[in-house]
Amino acid sequence: MADEVKLFGMWASPYSIRVELALKLKGIPYEYMEEDLSNKSSLLLKYNPVHKKIPVLVHNEKPIAESLVILEYIDETWRNNPVLPQDPYDRAMARFWAKFIDEKLLVTTRKVSFTAGKEQEQAIEEITEQLKQLENELQGKEFFSGHSIGYLDIVANVLVSWFGNVQEALGVDMFTEEKFPILFDWIGKVVKIDIVNECRIPKEKHLDYIRSRLEALKSASK
Amino acid sequence: MADEVKLFGMWASPYSIRVELALKLKGIPYEYMEEDLSNKSSLLLKYNPVHKKIPVLVHNEKPIAESLVILEYIDETWRNNPVLPQDPYDRAMARFWAKFIDEKLLVTTRKVSFTAGKEQEQAIEEITEQLKQLENELQGKEFFSGHSIGYLDIVANVLVSWFGNVQEALGVDMFTEEKFPILFDWIGKVVKIDIVNECRIPKEKHLDYIRSRLEALKSASK
């Protein structure tokens, strides 16, 4: 039986882009199902009844949710072009920093997005510190994963276009080449990789989307 | 060279108990270093400069932080008595529910702890729903991991004594045998396992600890 691989995703989600990158890196053909998050499909709700969120990978009718869990599944199911490093300690470090990106960096990004004034300034200070810690991890390396992109580069891909677009839509100045030369050097290298380029978020469409979402959330909280 | 394994933990932390359970399950000798979280050791700060938190496993001078990352590391480094299932889909499900426990169940527990009145009632409703979802996952199985305890049982071990003690200290009634017969049946089985019993948190000491911590946090936020 040929593998049937479907991905339920959303064009502007860094989480579903991660899964696309891993599938493309391994050359796995898949059917992409775009979800309208304001009107989720019954299939998405069936496949991810707990979180009701994208991305969901469905492999031969078996659903898997949570992007980091999906990445591990892909790597364990299709063994070519390993995504995670081979050494247990290197694997632990990759997982540690992936968790850091999701649980610190992206959580603080939300803080920056939904605060203003002094509170926003503090969140920007916090995220600057977190970006420095992440940059530190990259120091002296070509990619996070060594000489080619892997698991942590895929997770950190959120910095490539998504993060800059959010910054621009918010009109803040927290992630610049001047402050983070090593991260920007890495971005310069990853955008030259075909599969990364194929997954780039269209900028103007993304800016419009972020602005309208922020507006909607702000007026809902009034 | 013999393996040198050190664990920086704290007696009441369900996260450091997870690591102890995995080490004991595999029969790995380790040195346990109790941390005073109000006065963290310079070694802890050196080994986990990013989060400054326990648990940290130090294996031959190499530190690993974050309990779920440590569990994967232990399983990949010492191959006897596998902790994670072997099948990639079963592994994905175990990881999915472990994330659920940490990012939903334990986050809502904090909400229950730091709210009162209507807000606390809502948090209790939320946690009841989450416990039902977790219970659903256990239905028809002897343990979360099948016929013997494994990764998800180790992570869910937070329900064995820690969770009940928190509930008792808070004086709320959210986790009872009547509401969750399958989870309580599982607890009845796991407490009979020697290594689980060795890692049980002393109840009275724990109740005193939770009460004094809640008091301190409440007066700090006034």
Automatic annotation (TrEMBL), chains A, B:
Main localization category: cytoplasm
Coiled-coil ranges from the UniProt annotation: 117-144
Family: Belongs to the GST superfamily. Tau family.
GO MF annotations in UniProt: glutathione transferase activity
CDD domains: GST_C_Tau, GST_N_Tau
Catalytic activity line of the entry: RX + glutathione = an S-substituted glutathione + a halide anion + H(+)
EC class: transferase
Name of the protein: glutathione transferase
Domain GST C-terminal: 87-209
EC id: 2.5.1.18
Localization per Swiss-Prot or TrEMBL: Cytoplasm, Cytosol
Highest taxon above the source species: Eukaryota
UniProt keyword list: Coiled coil, Detoxification, Transferase
Organism annotation: Durio zibethinus (Durian)
Stretches assigned to the GST N-terminal domain: 3-82
Annotated GO biological process: glutathione metabolic process; toxin catabolic process
